[in-house]
Hints:
Pdz3 Domain, single chain, four-stranded antiparallel β-sheet
Amino acid sequence: MNMIMDFFTGVGGYVLPFLVVLTILVFVHEMGHYLVARWNGVRVEVFSIGFGPEIKGWNDSTGTRWKFCWIPFGGYVKFFGDSDGASRPDDETLQELSEAERTVSFHHKRLGQRAAVVAAGPIANFIYAILVLTAMYMVFGQRVTPAEIGRVVDRGAGQSAGFQEGDVVLAIDGKSIHRFEQLEQAVFLNPETLLAFRIERRAQELTISATPRLVAKADRQGIMHKFGDLGLWPANPAIIGKVYEDSPAAEAGARPGDRIIAIDGKAVDNFERLQDIVAVSKGRRLAITVLRDDREVRLHMAARRDVATAAEGSGATKERWLIGILRAQREPVRLSPGNAVVQAVRTCYDMLVQTLAYVGQMISGRRGTEDLGGPIRIAHASGQAAQVGVEQLIMLSVLLSLNLGMINLFPIPILDGGHLLFYGFEAILRRPLTERTQDFAFRIGLALVLTLTVFATWNDLVNLRVVEFIAGLFS
């Protein structure tokens, strides 16, 4: 019974943030269509958040019905002359329109106007992501990790290729690198692919060729992910950000802001080196020198053994030795409005490129489909982000907004990209495709979208162990 209660409590914690984020993104997308349609003189009959029976609605002075519906996974704008929310033309009705009605009919607008209205939805999602990121970089600041290598894992692919601590990565395959996150992205997406790294080492530029190893690793939910890995970690100063109560560090007198510079007389230049030394100490008493208020202070402590679960639900455990501290996060840098816009555009571009590369690898067979997620996994991610903090939830909304805009531009009938594809044929043929052709294409597009949705949802149910949980209720 407790298990059932915990399950539904967890679901509640995930569903609410998911619905809030999804409602905002759907509103932004449909508002893009609405505003450009109104700007081009199109009458909008319905603006709906969700599908199915109406929960609440009202009519504005222009005759548009604004409403919320019971099925929250999406929304639509219905224009005058449409036969449904997918903006398919109603040929019978269109032929009977008066001259005055034709002036406000979507399907009687010029080709360029119709294309602009359709493209406005995805573009609104891209603009939302850029504006939100710009505001975040101005208010909270941008967290930037320099592309300097602080640790090279023993027997890793990076060590075999010749990387050294202190190397600064300047470019990968000719593309400039400014942040360690860009290095991680390139390595993550290219397992078993030879990459050329241009680095700076002691004021000299070198080129290193390295092939990331294919690694399979489970996340906290036990979902397996495959990605490239070189065994390289960023350079992080060993500065204490948090000291846990009743921990060895707390008992020794460690404080947030202390910078650890040596252990047992040996220099410590980054947090990863500190972790390595603590991990192999096995409870041995350590003499730790910290820099506090520009003076050196010596502390003595012994790490405590901790046994943690390796992956949620797996039953496996792993041994760790801890002194009870967390590293200090790099202080975010607040950007000027102009620089914030530039960095926001660059970040959005990197996110889109990474996502497209990921999808391309799935289509080509280089990557499995286990990472293809649907509404359940998005809801799960929303709940986790909300637990971490508002900033993380906002960043998730940015990523989802970019993905929503990108997916809607795919040339699949029923999506915005499918409509733009039809308009492309119309521009070439100098006439619209026949109603029968469009209807057939819409049916194929609907079947494809429903199939992908079902497949992604099944992936979610299996990977998040919902199927296993339900089966357990009856066993």
